[in-house]
Design a protein that fits this description.
Number of helices: 9
Strand content: under 5%
Oligomer: single chain
Number of domains: 1
Radius of gyration: 19 Å
């Protein structure tokens, strides 16, 4: 197996798990606030199969890859019904934030484990090793997912937070988004295409400085080279 194929498999595996974990967090938090919809539909599971959607997981990534050169898509959106919650507003925003928060936990866990292993058994996470790359993928992919999902464009999680802040003026918009189905792929595509770079650019720069602070310039440079394939 070539190194490029192995890197791709590793990145896809981390991405799939991270997206599934994200959706489970939405469902779990909604359930805790009184909405059992997602749990009853079998979505409170780390098994990726129930989270696969023909449009979001297959057709949209293929179309956007052919259109722009990189795929945009995701798992089946988590079924959340705020009308069943004890506190719809607080439950709605808590469920929305649970997704990015779960990615933040994974991201910090990946970076923390890399730092711990670097301190205890440095030979296990040499900067050009697959182990170091795995932990770095966990950090970078989850950090990117958390930040992108907080962009306040419907139906991304950030729009739910904006709705919670603004309140009633956005009620009709969010009701439309909830029933719009695949049409919401349009604002998601636009957000990924035109807004995400402004989020990921500073995140990548911050990651470099974080690596340098944690591990020193030599290790940071070598790990970044492994990550970028340069």
């Amino acid at each position: 197996m070539s190194e490029e194929v192995l890197r791709l498999i590793l990145a896809v595996a981390v991405l799939v798990f991270s997206c599934v974990f994200h959706e489970c967090a939405h469902v779990w938090m909604a359930w805790k606030f009184g909405d059992p919809t997602g749990r009853q539909m079998g979505r409170l599971t780390l098994n990726p199969l129930p989270h696969i959607d023909v449009f979001w997981t297959i057709l949209l990534p293929v179309f956007t890859f052919l259109q722009s050169g990189y795929p945009i898509g995701g798992p089946k959106p988590a079924p959340v019904n705020t009308h069943l919650m004890d506190d719809p507003r607080l439950g709605g925003v808590s469920s929305a934030l649970a997704g990015p928060a779960s990615n933040l936990v994974l991201a910090l866990g990946g970076l923390g484990l890399l730092a711990l292993l670097r301190s205890v058994v440095p030979g296990l996470v040499e900067p050009d090793s697959i182990n170091a790359l795995l932990f770095f993928y966990i950090w970078f992919i989850n950090g990117a997912l958390a930040l992108i999902n907080l962009i306040p464009v419907p139906p991304l999680d950030g729009s739910r937070v904006l709705h919670w802040i603004v309140g009633r003026p956005l009620d009709r918009l969010m009701e439309f988004v909830d029933g719009a189905g695949w049409i919401t792929a349009i604002p998601i595509y636009l957000a990924f295409r035109y807004l995400a770079p402004y989020v990921l650019g500073p995140f990548a720069a911050g990651t470099w400085y974080l690596l340098e602070a944690f591990f020193g310039g030599e290790y940071a440079e070598a790990l970044w080279a492994t990550f970028t394939g340069s």
